[in-house]
Each structure stands twice: as C-alpha cells, then as structure tokens.
Amino acid sequence: MHVGPVTIEDEVLLAGVRNNVGFSSPEFVEAMGKMLRGLRKVFGVDDSYQTFAIVGGGTSAMESVVSLLRKGEKVLVVSNGVFGDRWEPLLKRYPLQVNVLRADPGDYVPPEAVEDEVSKGGYTAVTMTHVETSTGVRHPVEETVKRIRDRVDLIVVDGVSAAGAETVKAKDWGVDVYLTASQKALGAPPGLGLLALSERALERLKGESVSGYLLDLRNWLPVMRNFEEGKLGYFSTLPVHTVLMLAKSLELIEKEGLENRIARHEKVARAIRAGVEGMGLKIVARRPEAYSNTVTGVIVNGVDPAKVLSAVINEGIELAPGVHPKLQGRYFRIGHMGWVTPNDAIATIAVLERVLKSLGEDVRVGEGVKAAQLALYS
Amino acid sequence: MHVGPVTIEDEVLLAGVRNNVGFSSPEFVEAMGKMLRGLRKVFGVDDSYQTFAIVGGGTSAMESVVSLLRKGEKVLVVSNGVFGDRWEPLLKRYPLQVNVLRADPGDYVPPEAVEDEVSKGGYTAVTMTHVETSTGVRHPVEETVKRIRDRVDLIVVDGVSAAGAETVKAKDWGVDVYLTASQKALGAPPGLGLLALSERALERLKGESVSGYLLDLRNWLPVMRNFEEGKLGYFSTLPVHTVLMLAKSLELIEKEGLENRIARHEKVARAIRAGVEGMGLKIVARRPEAYSNTVTGVIVNGVDPAKVLSAVINEGIELAPGVHPKLQGRYFRIGHMGWVTPNDAIATIAVLERVLKSLGEDVRVGEGVKAAQLALYS
Amino acid sequence: MHVGPVTIEDEVLLAGVRNNVGFSSPEFVEAMGKMLRGLRKVFGVDDSYQTFAIVGGGTSAMESVVSLLRKGEKVLVVSNGVFGDRWEPLLKRYPLQVNVLRADPGDYVPPEAVEDEVSKGGYTAVTMTHVETSTGVRHPVEETVKRIRDRVDLIVVDGVSAAGAETVKAKDWGVDVYLTASQKALGAPPGLGLLALSERALERLKGESVSGYLLDLRNWLPVMRNFEEGKLGYFSTLPVHTVLMLAKSLELIEKEGLENRIARHEKVARAIRAGVEGMGLKIVARRPEAYSNTVTGVIVNGVDPAKVLSAVINEGIELAPGVHPKLQGRYFRIGHMGWVTPNDAIATIAVLERVLKSLGEDVRVGEGVKAAQLALYS
Amino acid sequence: MHVGPVTIEDEVLLAGVRNNVGFSSPEFVEAMGKMLRGLRKVFGVDDSYQTFAIVGGGTSAMESVVSLLRKGEKVLVVSNGVFGDRWEPLLKRYPLQVNVLRADPGDYVPPEAVEDEVSKGGYTAVTMTHVETSTGVRHPVEETVKRIRDRVDLIVVDGVSAAGAETVKAKDWGVDVYLTASQKALGAPPGLGLLALSERALERLKGESVSGYLLDLRNWLPVMRNFEEGKLGYFSTLPVHTVLMLAKSLELIEKEGLENRIARHEKVARAIRAGVEGMGLKIVARRPEAYSNTVTGVIVNGVDPAKVLSAVINEGIELAPGVHPKLQGRYFRIGHMGWVTPNDAIATIAVLERVLKSLGEDVRVGEGVKAAQLALYS
C-alpha cells in the first residue's frame, strides 16, 4: 500500500525473468510495440499521438518536456503540492521563464485562477498534476484545460499517480503531453518514463530546444516509431526487463478492462476513506470531488507518523510517509493503486486501527474496518 | 553473447522478483548500501570516492558528468569509436567547448597524441572510453592518465564495457570519474547509471554547473550518502528491482572474487579470438595489446552480417550488430561479459562456424572450435 | 485460505526455480540433509528418531506405515472424520486385521474409549489423526497416547494438518510414527510424504512386512541416512525442486521460530472463529478444546456451500469444500495454515460476509469483521 | 546433461511459481486436462487410451501396474539393465509369479528370445524398458510386441527415458501400458508418474487386483476422467505445481512439434557420440541400431568416473554416474534429453575432453569437439 513502487502481480514480475533478451531480440521488439500501443489506451489517445517510453521515470518524463520548449519561453506551473512544485526547479535549470500558482495543502488551484493567470498572456505552456501524490488531491484537468486550451501552445499533464486508475481522456480533453511512470497505477516496477505527445507537441519537437541530450525526445522519436513498426531502434539502452514487465502489465490491464480497473480503484479508495473516517481520523484532501482513486493522506493527531510506518510494516503493510512540507509530521499516505483489491483495503484499515491504537492515537478499533466493509458491500 | 543486456544468472533475476518492496523498505535501503559499497571494489576506489547509482544507464551516467562542468569550460573527448564519439553531441547540448581526437576504426588514440593536445592548454576535462563497445578496443587508460594528470582538472573514464571484466584501478590511476552501467560486465539488467567520483570531482560538485535537473549529481549526492548510512533517501524513484538485482550480482562477484572474474573473462575472450581466427576470420581490433576481455568485433568477407545475426539467434546465440559507421556492413560483434563461461565460448564459435559456412562465407568448419578448445586447454 | 496446497511464500517458490539441479548435485544433497534435520524440530523429536521424505504426500506417508506391519497383525483406527476413515480401506488392501472407532462429525473419539478398546488386547498398532482436515477437530493426542502407550507396539499419528502449526512433541508424548505432507502447515508445495520413526519403529522395520515396493521404508532408510551424512542416496527419484522448496520453508520456519509460528496460527484461528461467530454462523468443531489452529469448518443454513466457494474465489479467496459425508452440503472449510497472517483472516471474513449476504444467507455484514478485528487486537 | 532431473526451461519452472493454486482451482483443473490430453500425443495413443498422472514418478507408475494383475498371475520381465531389473523385486512384493530374461550389459534381449519364452505359455503380462537408462540401450519395442501380442494379455513398456525424445506409437505397436515420469525427456521437474492404458488394460482394471491403496489405478481412474471433463477430482493430493509445469512443458513440446523434438534429440545424440568417439573413447551401447536419443554411456580406461563427475560439475556440466553393477567403476553417463541443444552437446564434449585429459585419460583434445561439430554440420 505504498505510493509506488506498488505491489506487483507475480505474473508481471515473472515476465521479467528472462536471461537472454537483448535490445535487438525479437521478443523485446514485440514487447516495445505492444507497450507503446497499450499506453495509448491508458492515456485515452489515438494514433495521432505518439507514445514514448524513455529511461528513468516520472522525473525523466517531466524533464523531457523541455525538448518542446525554446529559449526564453514562459511556462505556468499549476501546483497542488510537492510534485507540482517540482516543475519549478526543474524548468529553472533551463533558460525559460517560470511562474507558479500554488494551492493550499489538501486543495487544488481553481480552474478559474489558472484561466485568469493565462489570460495575462505570454505563456507558451502550462503544466498541471492530475493526481498530486503528496496529498492525494485530484486536479480538475478537463475543466482547467477547457478554459485555457485556446490561449497556450502546450498543455502538459503529469499523470504519474493517475494513469491506469483514473479516467484519462488526453485527446478529448485537449492535452498535448500526458506523462506517467511505470511503477504507479500501471503496476510494473520503476524504470520507465512514459509519455504521449499530440500532433501539436510533435510539431514543436521538430525545432531547436533547450533540452540536454538523453532526455531530448527528438533522439527517442525515431526509436519509438521503429519499434511500433516492428523494427529495431536504438538510442540509449532501455531497461529491457522492465519493458517486458510493463508490456505484461498492460496486457493484464487490457484483460481486466480499463473501465473495470478504474472502477476497482474507485471502490478500494472509497473503502479506504470510509475506514479512515470510521476509525475517527481525517483525510488530507479537503474536497470530496478531489478525492483521488490512488492516494489517501491521513492526518494523525497524537502519534508520530514515522512510528506508524515502522509499526505497520511489521504487520505486512507498507505505507508511505507524508512529504508535504506544510504538513510535516502530521500525516502519512496510503497508496492504493496497481493491483490493489478490496481485501487490501480491509486489511490495511484493520492494521492501521490496531497499530494506531497501540501507539496511543484515539481511534475506534473495529469501527473503521466495519465502515470499510459496509462501503464495500453497499 | 550480446554486448548488453547480457545473459543474466537466474539468481540475479530472481532477486528482483519481490512484489512488495517500496523505496522506503528496509530491504531496499540495505541493497542500496551494499551496492554502493560493492561498486567501490569493482572500480578500484576507496572511501574517498563517492559511488552513485542513478536512473538510466551509460548515457545518463555520461551526461551527469556535466554537473561537474561550468559554463564555457573546455573538454577534450578522446574517441576510439561510436561510444567515444557520443560525448561530442552530448556535451554540445550545453554551453561548453568541445574538441575531439579520433582514432581509426579498430585502433585507439595514442596516449602521446592526448598528451600533445592537452599540452596546448585550456582544457578542464578529458573523457576517454575504457573499452569501446563498437569495436572491442581497450584504451590504455593508465598510461594516458599518467601523461595528462597534472594538466587537467577532471579525468573522466567511461567504463561501460569494462567494469567487472577488466582490471580497473580508478584511484591508483588517478581517474576522477569512472562510470558504467548495470547491464554490461556487472551482469544485471539495464536501468542504472553508475559512477564513482573522486574528492576532486566532489569538490567541483559544490559549485554551479551547466546541468539539467534529473542528472544533476548534486541532487543525488545526499541520497547516496543517506543510503550508505542505512537511512532513507529520495530524489527521484530508483528502479528498485534493478537495484536488488545489481546488489545480488555484486554479491556473486564478491563470491567469485574480482580477480577470478577478470581472469575468467580474459580466458573466454582468448578462446573466442582463437576460434574466430581458427575458422579463418579477422578481428576488428588491430593491436593485440588493445584486445578487450568483453567485446570482439569479427570482420566478414562475403556474407551480410545482419543475416548472420538472424541465423545465429535460431541456434540459441544472440550476437550484436556492428555499429561503427566506417565499417558499415562489414562486421558483427560478439559480447563476452557478465556470466559468460568457456562453454559459451565453445558453443558460440561452433554456431558461428556452421552458420557462416551455410551462408557461404569461406570458413573452416571444425577448425575454429578446435582452436578455441585448445586455447581453453592450454 | 485453502486446506492445502496453501498459499506459499514467493521466497519458497523461487527456491525451486533451479534449472540444473540433479539428484546427485551438492545443492540437492545439502537441501535433503537440512530438510531431514529441520523436520525433527517440527515433529518434536531428537536424533533417536529417523526422519524420512518420500515421494507422494499424506497418503503415501500413511501407506508406508504398512512396512512396519506383519501379516495378520491387528490395527485400531481412531477416526474423527474422512481422513481418519481413510486408514481403513488403505490397511484393508493388506493382510491385516482392522478395527475402527468413529466419532460423530465435529467431535473426537474420547481417549477413554480408545483405552477401553485397546484394553481388549490383541492390537499391534493404533492410528489417530492429530487434526482431522475434514472437520477441523484436533484430537487430544497426548492424553490418548498416555492411556495406551504400554499396551501397543506402534502408535501412529497423522499430523497432516498439524505439523508446523500445532504443538507437536512426538517423542515426549511417546509417538512412534508421526507423519505429515509438505503442502500443509509447512507451507511448501505438495509432493512429499514426511515421517519420523522412533527407535521402536525402526526396530520393526528390520523384519519382513506386508508392504509393496515403493512405499517400503526399508528401501528409503539408507537413502535418508546417506543424505544426513552429506552423501548421495538413491532409491527412486525424489521431487528435487519440491525438496529445495521445503528446505527453504523449514529455514523460514526456523527464522520465524516454531513457537512464534504456532502462536501466529493460534491467533489467526481465533480471529477466524470470532469472525464466523460474529457474523452469526456456527463452527463444525463442537468443543472449544478441540478447535484446531489450521482448519475451521463453517456451517451454513440456507446457501449452497459450492456457490459460496465459487463466489469467494472471484474475490481473491480460495476456500475448501466440506467433505464429511454426514454433513454433505451443509458446510465449507477455511484453511488457515502456512504463511497465513492476521490480514488474511480479516480479508477472508470480510469476503465471506459480503458473499454470504449476497447469496441470501442471514449474516450481519460488518459484525464479523469487527469481531475478528477485536479478537486480533485484544 | 544429467539423466534426470534434466535441465529445465525457465518458462517451465516459472509456470510453477503460483502461490495460490489449490487442487480445486480452475487453473489446476485446466492444467490437468491439458496435460492428460498432451500425454496422449507423446505416447502415440488416441482417446481409446486413458492417460493418468499419479504421485511419484517412474517407480510409482511401474508399481501401479500391479493394479492390473490378479493373485498368482505370471509376468515376464525383459530386462536390459538396472531399470529393467527393478521390475523383479517390485513385482515380487506381490503374490505374482515373475520370470526375468536378462541381456548382457550394453546389449538387449533379442525379440526372438522374448517370443520363445512367451511361447512356453502361462504369461499374463510382459514388461520391457524402451530405453534402459543405466546403459543407454534402446529396446526394439515394436518388433518385440509384434511377436508376442497374441500370446499375452498385457504388454507394459517403461518409457521413462524415451517418451518425448524417441518415436513412440503405443497404439500402433499394440502396447497396453506405456509409462514414463515427468522429469526425463518431457523436461519438467520430477514428481509425477505418467501412464496410458489401453482399453484392454482398462478392462482388467475393473476386477480385483493385488495392489495396495495409493497406487491402485482404480482409485485414480475417476479422478482423471473428471479432470478431462473439466471437473474437480480428488483421491490424493497431486503435486499441483509440478502439474502446472508439466502442462507448460507439453505446451512447449506441442509448439516445437513432436517430430522436430525427436529429430533434435537424435541430432544431439549423434553429435555426442561423434564427440566421444572422436576423442578416442568407447560407448556402452554395443549395437548402433540400439543407440538411444537420450542417454550415452561412456567407458573410461584409466580414470575414476566419480572424479570425472566431480570435475565436470566445476565446469558447469552435470553428468550421471554409471550404475550398472557389471560395469562398476568403468563408465559414466551423459543424459541428453529435455531441452538439450547442439550447443549443449558441443560444450559437454569440450568440457569432457579437457577434464579427462587433465585427469590423465588418453584423449585427443580438440578432436572430439571437432568431430561433434562436423556431425552437427553434416
């Protein structure tokens, strides 16, 4: 129940136990093609978008976006927390202008505020974070994009804790770059940064940019196109085994059905929240419409969250620390993504009740688990 | 018998079959510490060097070196082939001055030539490639460094096809940055760029640099230090499972003994070369003292190397294409690194003889395999 | 949550992923020795007992007991259910006299009744079942043995659903043959019948017997002794990979501590029973002192147990059918052995509540899971 | 290169890494059906034969044949070595009459001799061994059966080292019981005895027999029929994971094509023999028409075979000891079955040459490997 790497199906892990697969093997070429096509479905895009898998993870995918930007261009960062904030130091390593709109912890920047700022003019790009991993807040991407689509060239959405667990319609919503990482709701190990670029984004890729070498998507574009055509491609060695595992994961996602998968995440998230509130605790995300399917921040009153994390691990549950600086020492996070089930929700709430009570927090043992169960049954 | 990813021991792969290991789990923290300490041995450095494991691979390790360089500084690239050449476009993405010394294919840049160029003055850094993966040529690193050590600030060695299979004494030789990737002679899957930085290099890390965000080693330094002290560290999610596998690989290397491992590679390489010459073919590397323990380029006369590669894979042997543009279509490569054994050498030569003969190349079937066997027996 | 094969730790399963281990490999010899020694601890015996691992499982271990019996000898079978009953047809395939004492379903044969029957004289051997897998009833082995020890030559206890989860003191109690299978509370895959024979039993092995060939323990004895001395042994090929897995399992049991393991099973069993009763259902085992740590039979009132089993499997929980003919169609079984945790208990009860309610059974959703949680917390 | 358990494909081993598969899971039911159907192809029989998978291995399959025999019936054992001989003590544990015809080591009992003996009358059954694992001799089953088919009720063939690597046409040849084990040429781990019974054999199963309980095929028959109909079946717990692995193995056999598989074994065997003779040694099997595709016995002149076995294992090759008492200390065996390839043949010969030479045997280093290579090329 970590925010990532998440619990992974054995079937996915075992797909990586291949001791003789080089980057020019037919097996790898096939897996790459399968993976690139599978990502389109998860991102809600069609063939007009090009999907990419590059080395690294969420941060490499984010930084690769600078290969779409030219010297001096202005970017608006819409940040709901730590991972939204990350865009700022990242972009500032390059000769770009960067402005940031920040939400209070547990809240999101209202779409109107984004619209207002963009209306001032001069912005080439806007970045936002679909689900803010540090707080579990889901941003209203669709509405925000609708308000600004005509006024900026590039709309970039970080879907790291969203893709595979939340509804994503990057094309319908008008998103130019939707990105994620392999180790979150896609349920594979970490090691890959994943993106889809719209035609408009691909067009911008043709020109000069401020980017470095490895994360310059121009270097990766022909590689991806080759793999989709069943041919070899090479720029820098991809994590072959992770690709095999992610391809298997996408196969299992297809088998489950993306809608079923999203519904499962929604159900588990609902049970987790019911359990947390049932035992008498509060959730970091303030507004119900912004509750995410993947991360729930839990505010504690008396105990040290670090002690909670150590104690639950002895009961077989790994949770994640709170990382929002404004809530330092006051919360921890439950990740519920990937292959998570209602059984995990029940067990997590049960462990939390017992551990928190033992550590002196004022929780009602038995009530959280009952509430989670009723949420699952209804 | 690929140049990488190489054949991997099952024990290494199975170390990654862990479905519940997050980046804050004690198991991961322990593996990171073990890995960072193990790398010191492989690189021939002591605690005055800091080892790093970052996302990516050889290229990310190379590009992270720019976090040691300031605007306008001048770098000399000593290139013996494709991967030496790669430094040029990489460094030129940054505001640096770059000069390149190039060897003929199959040869290396003489140490004296490097000394001459450096003597002209103005260079902050020199890069060289320990084993050039595109041709299998080993560069005389020790001698080259000796001639230039006093004249430049930073000496950077790309040990991608060397570390774990060739003698490496980065500290004794006076190398500031020795780097490699997980998927070559270390015998783990790809996904990690690995480096060791000398005190001088660490000192340079303190100042401003031209680097981007993800590959800025300043962001990774505290993470590595934490892990070595058994504490959590986080900047960007590392490929947890690959770390577990590399830690296992380094454990097996320790068990085998680094010297035994190097001797094994040397023996296998010798058998491969004897086999290639025994069947009547020529090797890309021109000078015997520059034969590497890890890669052998084989020049063919009549057949299309691409057809050889397709045919050998049906016989259970995966080889690598030749990639040096000046030898286009005239050679292929045998990788012999990682967990490679004399049995692999014999089987590879046997398959090559049969496949080449079938494709019409003028080889003596039975003679190569006999020569390889005699090389192993002597 | 099956009665076996049970859920198995990945670490155990991966110990079997060895593609080159023959029955004469040092690795196998070592694993055999380790396993045979580890079994002594689990059975509560010392070096005066010889442990055995033979092909098959519980039934082969049971049938191998005939290699201790001579033509015409008389055996008393003490049966508390289906697996106790199995001794009858089994023994009757041989020229032996067989009498059976049977308990009502959910109950056990009182030790006094066994004493009374044995007192009639003429019995060479008595068999009993430590935990009757068909009903979850634990037999009072210690007391029963105490009453008959002086009157029979051989006391045989089937510990198939007991060893590794219940307190077993075969030597202190005076048991001559204690047997089990690999796939139950020892937490490994099926494929091995396991026994410990006392000195008295080993003495009987010397003579002629009624047994067949493969299950004649005289053929296996020198093999086991060889392996314990680190030497090769061969009579009939053992399931090499299963041995590697069981050896790993016994290593993990040692690491956990046998007492901790038994306490864990006891805790989980208590939570399961609290959950079953909390939701309003009855348990097959009638007397609390005979509740086992490993199997709980659950009586349903309205629904078809077969439908329950199909439905829970869709929720990720596999349960076992009821097999006692006298309770046909009226119950199912929850297995809770091996690597089972409190989290499994909570999740199982939660799934059962929801599934049973959906199928129309009159259960109180939320109350079972709350009761199980309170049982775990107290 | 052992005679079994043999080297196993990772794909087969990984099919067994399932931690939640009980004997009533749909996955297991499906695998059983698949396996039982797959065995028919390997045995060369149609639906008029019933295939069985029982616990144990070759010996349990052999002993289960007594469930077709009645008290006092007479059996002729045709033995070409140790495993042929095994029928005698096995059958003599039961009230049967047993006669044995024995071949010299390295030879087989001539079909005419079998015919002569059977013609004397009184025999209910004849057993023979398709490939005698102790010497590598293949028996002329087809011809032998032709000569006796009309004179006995039951013809039983032990195909332990044959099925999956030699041509088997049990139905066309008129064999009533063809049996094997999972760990030989079928390329799965040990743990299962496998049989096919003709209609005539199934008819005999209806009556009383001399068999014990576990190996009484009457107990297993309804179980097998259930599984083939996609229903649950239970008599005694089967090694669930081994079944999953064997089902995968049979799937791979089907993919390879049975004829291709037999041809591959034939080719590897030919290369092995050419290599052995090329280095100057002799083969145990005396007559070329009786060379098997799966086992080659190698006679040494000076060295101790036990030392050869220890030495080759350090070179990554596991061979098997010689076990024929009449050739004690004079030979060792090379197993070449399962997933064995020409590369294994070449590597084995190369290792043998070097090891034998080092131990002082008079072999021609380089000549064996050359001869093996030429045998593969031709």
Describe this structure in words.
- 4 copies of one chain form a homotetramer.
- Chain A has helices spanning 10-14, 26-43, 58-64, 82-85, 87-92, 111-119, 141-148, 170-173, 199-205, 217-228, 240-256, 258-278, 305-314, 342-358, 367-377, and strands at 50-55, 74-79, 97-102, 125-129, 131-132, 137-138, 154-158, 177-181, 192-197, 282-283, 295-299, 320-321, 331-335.
- In chain A, strands 1-9-8-7-4-2-3 form a 7-stranded mixed beta sheet. Chain A has a 4-stranded antiparallel beta sheet with strand order 10-11-13-12. In chain A, strands 5-6 form a two-stranded antiparallel sheet.
- The first copy, chain A, folds into 2 domains: 10-256, Type I PLP-dependent aspartate aminotransferase-like (Major domain) (Aspartate Aminotransferase, domain 2, 3-Layer(aba) Sandwich); 258-377, Aspartate Aminotransferase, domain 1 (Alpha-Beta Complex).
- The two termini of chain A are 23 Å apart.
- Chain A is globular and about 60 Å long.
- The first copy, chain A, is an alpha/beta fold.
- Helices cover 41% and strands 15% of the residues of chain A.
- In chain A, α11 crosses α12, α12 runs parallel beside α14 (342-358) and α14 runs antiparallel to α15 (367-377).
- At the A-B interface, α1, α3, α11 and β12 of A face α1, α3, α11 and β12 of B.
Key phrases:
2 domains, 15 helices, globular, 378 residues, homotetramer, Aspartate Aminotransferase, domain 1, 15% strand, Aspartate Aminotransferase, domain 2, 4-stranded antiparallel sheet, alpha/beta
The gist of it:
Four copies of one chain form a homotetramer. The first copy, chain A, has 378 residues and is α/β, with parallel strands linked by helices.
